[in-house]
Amino acid sequence: MRRYMENYRVYLETFLQNPSPEQISAVRREILVQIGFMQHERLIHFLVTMLFALLFMIAMGIYLFFPSAGMAVLVVLLLVLLIPYIGHYYYLENTVQKLYLLYNQAAALEDRIAYPNTQMMEKL
Fold first, then answer.
1. CA–CA gap between residue 92 and residue 77 (Å, rounded)
2. Any residues with CB less than 8 A from the CB of 23 and at least 6 apart, and which?
3. Contact 102/12 with Cβ under 8 angstroms?
4. Cα→Cα distances 37→6, 47, 92, Å
5. Helix %, strand %, coil % of the chain (to 5)
6. Is the dihedral of CA 25, 28, 30, 36 positive or negative?
7. 8 Å CB contact between 44 and 93
8. R_g of the chain computed on alpha carbons
């Protein structure tokens, strides 16, 4: 998923550097669809991350009250899984927010193309 999101972000940045006026509206719609997919992915990873965090806290609590080697191994395993989940969720969150900014850039470009006189109004 990381590669997919990164490739899509690079594609959008490249397109927005030299946009085609005929394609900008279609690209805006496409960005919204892709943001929806990526928000869903982010939600699923958030839920999984919270589940592992909850399991880690429960296991840690049990270990503190009833220490045993098996419970210590479980706590360490959950922590080892939780850290990459947090990192991946962090990446998903930031990438989706970057896509919001790219969408805003595309919308501004489309507005400038549709309403060319707005640039004169910005100078006033």
1. 23
2. 15
3. yes
4. 14, 16, 11
5. 90, 0, 10
6. negative
7. no
8. 22
Q: Answer for the pair 69, 77: CB distance below 8 angstroms, yes or no.
A: no
- Burial code (b: 16+ CB inside 10 Å, e: under 16) for 77-108 equals ebeeebeebeebbebbeebbeebeebbeebee
Q: Is the pTM of this model over 0.90?
A: no
Task: Choose among 27, 32, 33: nearest CA to 12.
Answer: 27
Q: Which two tokens stand for residue 47?
A: 């839920």
Ramachandran angles phi, psi of 45, nearest 5°: -70, -30
- For every residue of 26-83, DSSP letters joined together read HHHHHHHHHHHHHHHHHHHHHHHHHHHHHHHHHHHHHHHHS--HHHHHHHHHHHHHHH
pLDDT tens, position by position, 25-53 = 888 899 999 999 999 999 999 999 999 99
pLDDT digits (tens, 9 = 90+) for 99-110: 999 998 888 887
